[in-house]
């Protein structure tokens, strides 16, 4: 009996430990355990995770300030990893130094990291802080269906915040502070549960984000927001913290913001806010901290600031306020008036036009009347000519279509090396600003002296920066250093191609700048190429987003496909010599606000001792299926472009995201069976969201040219002219059938 009691005394603590362990904490599934070890590898074994091995029970690790894993019912629900790498704000060095020392290595892939982590489908809290993550935030982040808290602060994540983040409906806290994000923040009003928004320490702007009214904390400090303080903040009844310091806010400070009952912390410092504060403004009962310093405010402080000084902090230096205190560091009144006028330029010309408009109404109406009469006559004449030419053109195309029988064989090329550029292709630059030579000062000003926060990517082919021209337009600036022997002016003959790379279906070149340093016997020249910036999403993102995908019916997808083909046609035939091997893929097809397709990351032939570079390409982004295509067509870059265009058309038709060469062959075989058998077989191979929106002959034409583009034998692939002709014919068939109202024959 005594031995039994001794045995029980040893066993009793273990029994108590089991009883006190929460039932929700358990060993996670094998797959999630494997994912966590994969995350350890993808993060390149940070110090906080170096103790893990296959015997480590990850769910029972003791929580620490740097690591916390919470498991519930066999699933990981919370993951916090805090590393020891510094952030962009802690560096004053050039981009090359912090990129190499403070980020993860060049082998790191942020896309692979989030692809793995999104498989933790029950995750509610995710914090990845100071780990040296770099790259654009992947759109697939919206696959965290259950996520409530997202904190990826103090990393080197650049680019725009993906639009897909707006579909994370359970999100309560979004913290992206101290990264390299830029551009406009997506519309976050749909995130009804969002209570905390911290985007400080980036380069976001210029608009104030569109956010929901349930926010408790809004922190946007240290960005590039140029806006008034939104008046709708008066309706944010739960707002406790509002920090927009170190931006470019202008205009008056609304009295309703200071009086807001819920507000506890208000920081408006280091902006361009101007005007008077109302002396009789009542301060909110919860207000504990106010900082309005380093603005352009004049007049007197609200009287309530003095009465709350005992219980709250009020900072107001660096303005032009009239105060009774000595040495409170205020500027003279004239300073704020002068700086305020520079901060917000009055629209003088517009006011003048409005004042003179009343005297010109009669003259304008008379001119409009004459134009209407003449325009009516011209419309009648144009309609007559258009109908006649359209009939002749359609007859010609029908003859060609019947003769080809969807064969799309490559048309013969001129053997003299010359290329005929159609007039329509020459007019494709309409709407673009004139090409120009930029000065080095303009380039430095646009990139804020090549501020690392504006660096989008860097590689062996140079750096790519985001910039803002003096007229406010956003651009991309590619920097390429060239070392050559000979005279500096000899470089000019090699950049003659740049002014020609302008087309409405390409990310066009807007201008360039060249700086030269003479270091005998070599000359080092830096070529800065300025591109237009497309702020919308890629075709891949558009089709990956369920709601946006529904907007792309067959006519819209055909218009996008034709736009891509026209961009490729321009690269092949619109410049001499033609440009081939253009890295065509879904993520490199950008869509502007009107859903016009623009080819990006194409080759730019700069010949400096056989130097040839691809605009903004990153080798790690090449898709797996490129290997198959290369084996089929080793030295035929023109046919390689046709193959890659076929892959894009394949994804447009099927709506499926292609990741491997085997998927290409499977989908291609499925389309081939569908086009040769019954309509129901073809229907099953096509994106279900397209049903009811396309004519059968239109779809079949597009399917056949896609199959031909994907031929394994490069010589059997069509020319870009044949691809474009078939796509345009498919669109004409679609339009004719739609206008006829003959819906019974549509699938």
From TrEMBL:
Primary location recorded for the protein, binned into one broad class: membrane
Catalysed reactions, semicolon-separated: L-threonyl-[protein] + ATP = O-phospho-L-threonyl-[protein] + ADP + H(+); L-seryl-[protein] + ATP = O-phospho-L-seryl-[protein] + ADP + H(+)
SUPFAM superfamilies recorded: L domain-like, Protein kinase-like (PK-like)
Residues annotated as signal peptide: 1-26
A GO term, aspect molecular function: protein serine/threonine kinase activity
Keyword Endoplasmic reticulum assigned: no
EC class: transferase
EC id: 2.7.11.1
Compartment(s) of residence: Membrane
Keyword Coiled coil: no
InterPro entries assigned to the protein according to its UniProt record, in alphabetical order: Kinase-like_dom_sf (IPR011009), Leu-rich_rpt (IPR001611), LRR_dom_sf (IPR032675), LRR_Rcpt-Like_S/T_Kinase (IPR051824), Prot_kinase_dom (IPR000719), Ser-Thr/Tyr_kinase_cat_dom (IPR001245)
Protein's name according to its UniProt entry: non-specific serine/threonine protein kinase
Annotated Gene Ontology cellular component terms: membrane
Keywords from the UniProt entry: Glycoprotein, Kinase, Leucine-rich repeat, Membrane, Receptor, Repeat, Serine/threonine-protein kinase, Signal, Transferase, Transmembrane, Transmembrane helix
Transmembrane segments: 361-386
Membrane disposition: Single-pass type I membrane protein
Domain of life: Eukaryota
Domain Protein kinase: start-end pairs: 450-738
């Amino acid at each position: 009996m005594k031995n039994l009691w001794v045995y029980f005394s040893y066993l009793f603590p273990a029994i108590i430990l089991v009883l006190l362990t929460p039932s929700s904490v358990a060993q996670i599934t094998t797959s999630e355990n494997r994912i966590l070890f994969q995350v350890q590898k993808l993060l390149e074994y940070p110090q906080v995770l170096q103790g893990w091995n296959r015997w480590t029970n990850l769910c029972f690790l003791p929580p620490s300030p740097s690591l916390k894993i919470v498991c519930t019912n066999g699933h990981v629900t919370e993951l916090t990893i805090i590393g020891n790498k510094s952030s962009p704000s802690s560096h004053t060095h050039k981009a090359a130094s912090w990129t190499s020392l403070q980020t993860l290595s060049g082998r790191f892939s942020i896309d692979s990291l989030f692809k793995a982590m999104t498989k933790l489908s029950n995750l509610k809290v995710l914090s990845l802080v100071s780990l040296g993550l770099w790259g654009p935030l992947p759109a697939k982040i919206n696959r965290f269906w259950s996520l409530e808290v997202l904190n990826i602060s103090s990393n080197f994540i650049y680019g725009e915040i993906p639009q897909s983040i707006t579909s994370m409906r359970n999100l309560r806290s979004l913290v992206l502070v101290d990264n390299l994000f830029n551009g406009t923040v997506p519309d976050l009003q749909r995130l009804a549960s969002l209570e905390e928004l911290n985007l400080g320490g980036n380069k976001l702007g210029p608009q104030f984000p569109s956010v929901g009214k349930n926010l408790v904390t809004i922190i946007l400090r240290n960005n590039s927001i140029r806006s008034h303080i939104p008046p709708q903040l008066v309706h944010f009844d739960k707002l406790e913290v509002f920090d927009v310091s170190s931006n470019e806010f202008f205009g008056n400070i609304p009295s309703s913001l200071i009086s807001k009952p819920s507000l506890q912390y208000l920081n408006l410092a280091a902006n361009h806010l101007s005007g008077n504060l109302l002396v009789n403004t009542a301060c909110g009962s919860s207000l504990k901290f106010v900082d309005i310093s380093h603005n352009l405010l004049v007049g007197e402080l609200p009287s309530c600031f003095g009465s709350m000084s005992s219980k709250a902090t009020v900072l107001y230096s660096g303005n032009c306020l009239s105060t009774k205190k000595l040495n409170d560091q205020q500027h003279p009144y004239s300073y704020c008036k002068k700086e305020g006028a520079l901060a917000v330029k009055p629209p003088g010309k517009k006011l003048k036009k409005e004042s003179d408009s009343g005297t010109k109404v009669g003259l304008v109406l008379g001119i409009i009347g004459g134009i209407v009469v003449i325009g009516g006559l011209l419309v009648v004449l144009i309609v007559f000519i258009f109908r006649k030419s359209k009939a002749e053109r359609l007859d010609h195309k029908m003859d060609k279509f019947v003769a080809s029988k969807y064969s799309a064989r490559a048309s013969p090329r001129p053997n003299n090396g010359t290329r005929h550029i159609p007039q329509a292709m020459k007019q494709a630059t309409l709407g673009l600003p004139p090409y120009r030579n930029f000065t080095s000062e303009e380039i430095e000003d646009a990139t804020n002296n090549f501020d690392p926060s504006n660096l989008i990517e860097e590689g062996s082919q140079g750096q790519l920066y985001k910039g803002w021209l003096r007229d406010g337009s956003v651009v991309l600036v590619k920097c390429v250093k060239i070392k050559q022997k000979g005279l500096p002016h000899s470089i000019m003959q090699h950049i003659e191609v740049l002014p020609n790379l302008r087309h409405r279906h390409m990310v066009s070149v807007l201008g360039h700048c060249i700086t030269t340093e003479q270091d005998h016997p070599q000359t080092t020249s830096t070529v800065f190429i300025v591109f237009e910036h497309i702020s919308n999403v890629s075709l891949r993102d558009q089709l990956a987003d369920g709601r946006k995908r529904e907007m792309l019916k067959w006519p819209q997808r055909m218009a996008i496909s034709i736009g891509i083909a026209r961009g490729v046609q321009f690269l092949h035939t619109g410049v001499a010599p033609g440009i081939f091997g253009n890295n065509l893929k879904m993520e490199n097809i950008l869509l502007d606000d009107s859903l016009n397709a623009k080819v990006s990351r194409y080759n730019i032939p700069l010949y400096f001792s056989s130097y040839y570079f691809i605009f903004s390409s990153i080798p790690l982004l090449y898709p797996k299926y490129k290997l198959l295509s290369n084996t089929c067509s080793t030295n035929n870059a023109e046919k390689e472009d046709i193959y890659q265009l076929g892959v894009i058309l394949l994804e447009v038709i099927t709506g499926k995201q292609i990741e491997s060469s085997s998927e290409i062959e499977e989908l291609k075989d499925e389309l081939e069976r569908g086009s040769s058998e019954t309509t129901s077989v073809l229907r099953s191979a096509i994106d279900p969201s397209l049903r009811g929106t396309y004519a059968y002959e239109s779809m079949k034409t597009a399917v056949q040219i896609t199959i031909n583009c994907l031929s394994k034998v490069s010589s059997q692939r069509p020319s870009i002219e044949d691809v474009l002709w078939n796509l345009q014919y498919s669109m004409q068939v679609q339009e004719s059938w739609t206008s006829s109202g003959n819906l019974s024959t549509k699938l």
